Amino acid sequence: MNSQTSPSSDALSVGICGLGTVGTGTLLLLQDNADEIAKRLDRAIAVSHVATRTLDAERSALLEKCGVPNSSTDPFAVVNDPQVQIVVETMGGYEPAFDVVKQALANGKHVVTANKALIAERGNELFPLAQANNVSLAFESSVAGGIPIIKALREGLAANQIDWLAGIINGTGNFIMTEMAARQTPFEDVLRRAQELGYAEADPSFDVEGIDAAHKLTIMGAIAFGIPLQFDKTYTEGISCITPDDISYADELGYCIKHLGIARRTEKGIEMRVHPTLLSKSRLLANVNGVGNAILVHGNAVGATLYSGPGAGAEATASAVVADLIDIGRQLSAGVHEPVYPALGYREMRDDLPVLAIDEIEAEYYLRIPALDKVGVLAKISSILQQHDISIEAVIQKEAISEIIPIVILTHRAAEKQLNHAISAIEALDDVSGSINRIRVEPFHGEAD
């Protein structure tokens, strides 16, 4: 399609690779808010080239309506177009996204991407290439949709040493946990409802097993602590093991259960973990429900700050994409040839802060133990925990309605490695039938109640 006139030479020329939910949202936002954007940037942003895998009649009509002069089914046509100054990558996935972004950077074009998996798993290869070619690789939209958490970590909190951050960073998982709590409904039933409502994919594993959240946590942790992107070292655990009984017991103890991404600086190194978590119901994150996202960040100077909003969706994510475009446009207008703020916030990455394995952390724990209804079982369990230096904070043992009764124990802070040994010993007891369900508990010291 070449029926439209070319963008003004004064306009910032943008090419979009991928016209799915986010790509379409970006195109429409640039059109709908064109006047406001031009006032903020002091120049217009014009989309000069769009590549989409399926260039059907509906998409062609959209591109014509938005005044896009060039379109194709080949993303490399966009990145090799000499008119395009900034490439927006909204294709998702690894291939051909990685090669497309790599070629764009090599061609000296700035890139804005919403691709969390690409940044988390291949960013260590792409950022040096951007630096070598004096261009920006911006990715605000890759984490938490419309919440400007990347800018907050890299710019707004730049004076702070980040102590820890924790977030509800997957809307599907948060919706499921919220519905399970509200309806006392099993995971499988709520997952089907989430799929019917369009919140969960036909294959929901990316969301419910924590992979999506782990990508986002990897990115935030790298920025917060100045470490390389290390997705392969981020511990990941899903929510399919959580039952309505766990939610009820947690509630009785004064907690709710959320699927969190947690990154924390410790004396031994950096904790990077995604898993179900017991939170006191008085905590800020405990009250973020539905498909909403929220990230709590604790800096040594500012204390705890909370960032909350829509974590996905066409308009929310497009808002972050366009914000990156405006930032790059301002740099270009100012004659800046390298990003004012380096991609991950530090001039050099730190190599003195290792990412810890999950068995190296310390936490408090919730244990649900399926035990036979016999005298002395709790005493045996308590003895094993004591042998492994694990003290008990609270116990729930209901009246038996079958030969198997759940014993629920809340522990004080303990080493995960020691707890693993204790769980193995308890599960080996003749009086214990089946696996123990373990959920970590986070007090988040430093956040006001």
Report a brief summary of the structure:
Helix content is 36%, strand content 23%.
Descriptive account of the structure:
With 449 residues, this protein is of the alpha/beta class. It folds into 3 domains: 12-138, NAD(P)-binding Rossmann-like Domain (Rossmann fold, 3-Layer(aba) Sandwich); 149-309, Dihydrodipicolinate Reductase, domain 2, CATH 3.30.360; 362-441, Alpha-Beta Plaits, CATH 3.30.70.260. The protein has helices at residues 21-32, 34-41, 57-65, 75-79, 97-106, 116-132, 149-156, 171-183, 187-196, 205-208, 211-225, 244-252, 314-333, 377-387, 416-427, and strands at residues 12-17, 45-51, 70-72, 86-89, 110-113, 137-138, 162-168, 235-236, 255-265, 270-280, 292-299, 303-310, 362-372, 392-397, 404-411, 414-415, 437-441. Strands 7, 8, 9, 10, 11, 12, 13, 14, 15, 16 and 17 form an 11-stranded mixed sheet that branches. Helix 8 (171-183) crosses helix 9 (187-196). The model is unreliable at 1-7 (pLDDT under 50).
Draw up the topology in text.
Layout: E1 12-17, H1 21-32, H2 34-41, E2 45-51, H3 57-65, E3 70-72, H4 75-79, E4 86-89, H5 97-106, E5 110-113, H6 116-132, E6 137-138, H7 149-156, E7 162-168, H8 171-183, H9 187-196, H10 205-208, H11 211-225, E8 235-236, H12 244-252, E9 255-265, E10 270-280, E11 292-299, E12 303-310, H13 314-333, E13 362-372, H14 377-387, E14 392-397, E15 404-411, E16 414-415, H15 416-427, E17 437-441
Parallel strand pairs: 1-2, 1-4, 2-3, 4-5, 5-6, 8-10, 10-17
Antiparallel strand pairs: 7-9, 7-11, 9-10, 11-12, 13-15, 13-16, 13-17, 14-15
Helix pairs in contact: 1-13, 5-6, 6-11, 8-9, 14-15
